[in-house]
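Bit of a strange request maybe. I'm writing a small parser for structure token strings and I need a real example to test against, not something I typed by hand. Could someone generate the tokens for this chain?
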Amino acid sequence: MVMPFTDSPLSSSTHGRGEPDGLHTTSIANTQEQPWTGAENGSLDLTAINQQFDQAAAVDVVAWAADTFAEGLVMSTSFGIQAAVMLHLVTQVIPNIPVIWVDTGYLPAQTYLFAEELTERLGLNLKVYQSTISPARMEALYGKLWEFNNVKAFNQYDQMRKVEPMQRALQELKATAWLAGLRSKQTHYRQSLHRINIQGDRYKVLPILRWNSKDIYEYLQARDLPYHPFFDLGYTTVGDWHSSRPLTAEDESDRATRFQGLKEECGLHLPQTPEESQSLDSSSL
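Reply from user aminoacidic:
Good idea to test on real output. This should exercise your parser:
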């Protein structure tokens, strides 16, 4: 299946280079002024850092995060359609980084097989976390929440099966910073993000935030990395089996294929303040 360039038709040259971000490094490490000093006491100057790394290659952002946060750095994956990009990019710099995978218990069989393939191929230091309440118990107590077809039920589902396990993982692994593969073209909320952010009491680092579909395709092709098997079935994003479907000509965006198009964020990537917790919207991990 040919990669559908579903997001904005910007070429790789929008990164200021003739090849996709992350295929080579830049000489940022030699900068005289380093506004990122002081990470250990929470005094990072995010404005200065984001200006510094605005046009940096993704691999440079990863290297900076490794140097800055050391043992406090983790990454997350959903083993979704394009998961191989971030897993390869990061582990080439930090081979033994803890990789958090929140297994909801409702993933397609192909996702579990894809996870096994990438874990073995890349030698991942995988940390699997699940909800403290089993799928069967959840359904007995609350019903099949995805069948209610309303945002409140989806939020309840996401909190139990995704958000709580992720927060527990971050705490148990003593994470001070978190690498994630979010891209600005995926949701409205992600358009507001910078490459280095604060979420709760941790830093969130987004190396491929500015990548488009063409960048993703070129990175995978150059390294012979696989897409999730559902890509060949027309999926451009995949999560739980009950709340994901292939993209159709009628869909206005990839996100319409998740949770009946009612939500965009699952809450994993939203700050957990009381105000923002009211708008837990779901899509991709």
